[in-house]
Predict the structure.
Amino acid sequence: MVSENGFSHFLSIPVVRNIEDLIIFSKKEIISFLDLPKDYVIPKNLTGLEALKKMYKQAGKFYIKGGKAEDLLKELDYISIAKKFCHTFEKLCSYFEFNCSKNLCKIRKK
């Protein structure tokens, strides 16, 4: 059945507070992008936004929410991010035929 707005499907998925809460799960790539030591530990008690701001500051740079971030975004490992949050998006994964079991996104075998 098609709804008033023309969509045939509607999926309700959980909201992430900030995009930075997703981005921060591409740890190695962020650390490399900022030229921080490879053994750099991201504090676990911070939000993604707070962690990125701290990391940028330690790299002698500024992270501004809503600012240009294309260079960082090009370096991210989107597979790592998807794997970490796949369980959160089970309906979406199912719709696109991904298996979200055990926190890993794997394409279903047909």
